[in-house]
Input
Amino acid sequence: MINLHEFKYKNSTVWSQVSLIFVLFNLFYEFYNLIKKILAAILTSKFRSEAKNLKKNINKYRFPRRTIIRSILKTLTNMMFFTLSDFVLIGKENLPKEGPLLLVSNHFSFLDPLAVIKISPWKLEFLGGTRTPNAPAATDWLRQMWGIIPVFRGSVSRDTFIASESILAQKGVLCIFPEGGNWATVLRPARPGVAFLAARTGAPILPVGLTGFDTFFHSLKKGNRPKVVARIGKLFGPFQLDVRGRSEREKLDGLGDEIMQEIAQLIPEEKRGFYSTDPDIRDAAKGTEIYPWADIQES
Output
């Protein structure tokens, strides 16, 4: 019987393992290009085209979708973390059996969505920006194949909210990174979208804290296996707020802060930034709360 632990290390270096993973991803990408015409109804090659189609068919949005392609991507993601890292999962007992569910997490690295895919036992949808300036360009094809629900920064994204509500109404699980980007490696205030969704839909919220993913490749370059941790918190909510008036913005901000405080309890103190109880850590984090795309309007 083959010992998997011996297999991982025998006659192999860290960089040969990295090369193997990237070769597998490249092969899978070629496979995707080959079959995308056959599966055109499911696999959309252009992210913006999918965003337009989503707007046209928003009231017919179905959950789950892209089950085959996402199963393959999940398998490759599991293989990557198994081969390259020491992945620690804490709080697995807190995972509910089904939705509706809003899964929220800190966002320090472009690897964070892959970590969520690995720990998720459900069919999973993501909300994400149409542009990812802090992620390698090579990750765009992963986003295209998974088929995230687009968020247009600087606009109301009404259609995105309708799609999200449709998924939750079908007992779906929707992952959102409340900070709205990974421009810093400490916790920052939530954008209003997650609180709006939580209040409007009444969906329970599951907080997840991710640690070590922002230094993942730095550890590999030093020849070390990175230790990464995903800590699952306890379900909280649902919340019921009247969000129809502008006067409710303060209530939404308060709900957003409550969501971020739940996440803060799941990551180390030095990473809690804006939500740390240590005044020195809060002072060091000043400036990170400024949203870098406040003046950008996407469509």
Remarks:
- Residues 39-47, 54-59 have pLDDT under 50 and may be disordered.
